[in-house]
Design a protein that fits this description.
alpha/beta; Rossmann fold; 7-stranded mixed β-sheet; 7 strands; hydrolase; Thioesterase; hydrolase activity
């Protein structure tokens, strides 16, 4: 446990050359990335973080301040006890947390990641999240369905208590996005990769490209068939692409990759 966050090692590989931290989308816990564990190359150790109020920690109060969450994530990934280089991949709100964690590391003089992957989230410039989220939050069940990237299960619709339990972490992460205030800073000197779904109603290819303004090296989006949660039907293809993109960067810095 580190200040309210827990590191979750999804597949222990103490001899792996690189740690790959995957940060989950709104409302999800570290287990969201469990299907990746057996697919990543042997040179990478799959990790995530467990946030209060999400996943197995739904009984705990949620954190809704981006800066606070990012500072805790930064502390976990820049681990003095583990000198291995690391990389970050964030899906949806996890991408924003990853981005702010890297900014926090830069400001504090910490180690920066070898690479960062952003999936299914537009750039944070110009109050973009408030404009996109508010109509969905005011849109009732249809808006919630768009937020989760698919239809709401009938068992939730029939049980208001269960629905509240399921929606609370999602709404907490929506507050995290709404509370976020973008700051103009120099571009991050970290290799970037972009991923998205071809039918994602929340993030278009053009919106993914907004991240290029915030990094020193531009990336071309890798698009997969599907919506906001495209990865559910494209897990193997996405992991192969992530491994290739990370590997292309990591092999220059880490001979074992």
């Amino acid at each position: 446990m580190t200040g309210g966050l827990t590191r979750v090692v999804l597949q222990e590989r103490p001899e792996a050359a690189v740690r790959l931290y995957c940060l989950p989308p709104a409302g999800a816990g570290a287990g969201f990335f469990a299907p990746w564990a057996g697919l990543v190359p042997a040179w990478a150790e799959m990790c995530s973080v467990s946030l209060p109020g999400r996943g197995s920690r739904t009984e705990e109060p949620s954190l809704t301040d981006t800066a606070a969450v990012a500072a805790l994530v930064a502390r976990i990934v820049d681990d003095d006890a583990d000198p291995r280089p690391f990389a970050l991949f964030g899906h949806s709100v996890g991408a924003l947390v990853a981005f702010e964690a890297v900014r926090t590391l830069r400001a504090s003089g910490g180690r920066l990641p070898l690479w960062m992957g952003v999936s299914s989230l537009r750039g944070p410039q110009d109050g973009a999240y408030a404009r996109g989220l508010l109509p969905l939050l005011m849109g009732g069940l249809e808006g919630v369905a768009q937020l989760v990237g698919g239809p709401i299960p009938q068992r939730l619709l029939k049980d208001p208590v269960l629905m509240a339990v399921a929606c609370t972490p999602l709404l907490a992460d929506c507050l995290l996005l709404l509370h976020h205030r973008h700051r103009d800073e120099p571009p991050l000197e970290v290799p970037l990769a972009l991923y998205g779904g071809t039918q994602d109603p929340t993030t278009s290819e053009r919106q993914l490209l907004e991240w290029n303004e915030l990094f020193s090296t531009a990336a071309r989006p890798r698009l997969f068939d599907g919506g906001h949660m495209y990865m559910h039907g494209q897990t193997e293809a996405l992991v192969r692409q992530v491994a290739a993109d990370l590997g292309a960067v990591a092999h220059e810095a880490v001979p074992a990759v």
